[in-house]
Amino acid sequence: MKILLTGGGTGGHFYPIIAVAEALSKLAEREKIVTMDLVFMSDSPYDEEALFRYRVRFKRIYAGKVRRYFSLLNISDTFKTIIGFVKSIWYIYLDFPDVVFSKGGYASFPVILASRLFRIPLIIHESDSIPGKVNLWAGKFAKRIAISFGETASYFDKKKLALTGNPVRHEFFTPAKLGAGEFFNLEGGTPVIFIMGGSQGAVKINETVLDILPNLLNDYQIIHQCGLLNISEVKKITEVTIGKSIYKSRYHPFGFLDESGMRMAYAAASIVISRAGSGSIFEIAASGAPSILIPLKGSAQGHQRENAYNYASSGASDVIEEDNLTPHLLASEVRLVLKDEIRLEKMSKAAKEFSRKGAALTIAEEIINLALEHAS
């Protein structure tokens, strides 16, 4: 059985694909499917270690973004997409899959278009509350459509639709408490704030946190994933602002945390401060951590804002919009939440209820069912 996986551009597309690949491998073992061949086709492998771990072959194609404003890059990216389409046709012809699973994003477009020429069944998954352009287009001919948020249902044909939640790697549902204190060099008894802005960090969040860092460290410990591009600057600033503080050992900055590090950070966290990409939201939910979400202003179709408020409506999170984000407001909100033990318990419970643990398995089962239908 050959299954083609596609999507890309961000970790928000890639890691749910890895979660589905993980579930497919387990199903193949359970159902005694001897040959389960998984191929990921995109413009970048994103995380080669993850692909290797789950035995997913990578095939590189070109793909270009479509910008909603005038840019000369739109011209060059159009040629990239055309080349990517031709390359996708060739790859699919040589290695004919039984089914295609797409997470959307610009990198999936050439692959989906090529697979449609060969009439290969397509399953798509939409992570965000407001669908991206590629998934809106692909939804017209996809055999199955899975969504993360119930509010997304109005955009698609309900006969094809299933509310599955967002696929999350199963490890995130088991907090890695063992070793977290040692790994981050944490004090016992002092609440921990885990701050992240996605795999690349978030400059606005970083700047706001650094402004209030001396104040927060009086009462809290901070694990700060600030982004690989920002870590040097962050360390330079904090050397000045907290270099002589008796609490400087409570601050733990990282450019990037791998899966193990993320699991330990979630397990240690009393509260998480994050952007509102769907991948981040569902990982936070899986961990059961209370959170404050700061949606990225100007995200495509405003999807982060919609994601944030849809998640917050469950009671698992608070939202601060970027236009309203000030050091004083963030510090006040953190203190307001962390001092209320009953509220923290309710937020944690709501997060776990929202997480939909079986999303990856549900999607994997449907992929296999569709592949068997196609093969028969």
Question: How would you characterize this protein structure?
Answer:
The chain is of the alpha/beta class and 376 residues long. It folds into 2 domains: 186 residues, 3-Layer(aba) Sandwich (Rossmann fold); 183 residues, Rossmann fold (3-Layer(aba) Sandwich), CATH 3.40.50.2000. Helix content is 44%, strand content 15%. It is built from 14 helices and 13 strands. Strands 3-2-1-4-5-6-7 form a 7-stranded parallel sheet, sandwiched between helices. Strands 10-9-8-11-12-13 form a 6-stranded parallel sheet, with helices on both faces. α11 links the parallel β12 and β13. α1 packs across α14 and α7 packs parallel to α8. The chain is globular, with a radius of gyration of 21 Å. 47% of the residues are buried.
Structure characteristics:
376 residues, alpha/beta, Rossmann fold, seven-stranded parallel β-sheet, six-stranded parallel β-sheet, 14 helices, 13 strands, 15% strand, globular
